[in-house]
TrEMBL record:
PROSITE patterns: TPR
Organism from which the protein derives: Eiseniibacteriota bacterium
Span of domain Protein SirB1 N-terminal: 46-194
Name of the featured protein: Tetratricopeptide repeat protein
Keyword NAD attributed: no
Lineage of producing organism: Bacteria, Candidatus Eiseniibacteriota
Positions of TPR repeats: 191-224
Record keyword Cell inner membrane present: no
Family: Belongs to the UPF0162 family.
PANTHER family per UniProt: F-BOX ONLY PROTEIN 21, SI:DKEY-261L7.2
Gene3D superfamilies in alphabetical order: Tetratricopeptide repeat domain (1.25.40.10)
Keywords: TPR repeat
Amino acid sequence: MDHPERIRADFERLVKRPEPALDLARAALLVAAESDPNVDVDGRLHTLDSWAAELRSRLEPDWNNLQKLARLRRFLFEELGFRGDTHDYYNPSNSLLHEVMERRRGIPLTLSIIFMELGWRIGIPFEGVGFPGHFLVRLTGEPGDLLLDPFKRGMTVHEEDCRHMLREATGGRMEFDDELLASVTKRDIIARLLLNLKGAYLRRNQDEQALAAVDRLLLIHPEDAEEVRDRGLLLFRLQRYGAAYQALSAYLEARPEASDRETIERHTLTLRRLVSSLN
């Protein structure tokens, strides 16, 4: 098994573990390692452990969650200099955890992963919040739930802030609902990371890399018909006509009432002719 295949196999084994055993940082670094085979996954995890050890040395034994949070904010955003990348937000590097750790710049999701990983290592009960368009972190337990935004240096976020972010992200097409602030699993976080990476690659017409992101999404959610469709469309663009035909046919079977059925059917007819001409 060569290096890329081993990385993919390691990723698949990891994301299929039960939730408590799923190592979020390792999974995110394995996502990055498929884009950059030079990523030292264990080395980057050691860096996170070293940062956490340095942070832990500055805590008092009787500190509560808010006191730990204040020290985490200062350490991550002031001393280490992490911040949101507002200049090149959609750069794929912002979804590759090793790049974010190196550049100290990222998007809400990758900054949240680092924020939570350090918090967990010093005993802060964090949860990920899959808010549309802007990932957040929840501090649970004493003194009560707080929503935090690592893209903005871990600042506290209130409901009105969330309503504003939702309007910005959706152009007012989505109504605010408390369910949008539900906690998500580590597996959900990795799926969202891959969706972000897929989108970043598509913006740059990097179809091969986008396809790799879709393939890993389907390891997490194999029944996701829309990703099966997107896989087929990417394979079509990459001129892998047989595999594209199979994927788009599977999509039509899974979604017989799909709004794009006519378009996809036309693609399958074209693909069938192309496959026949190659035989």
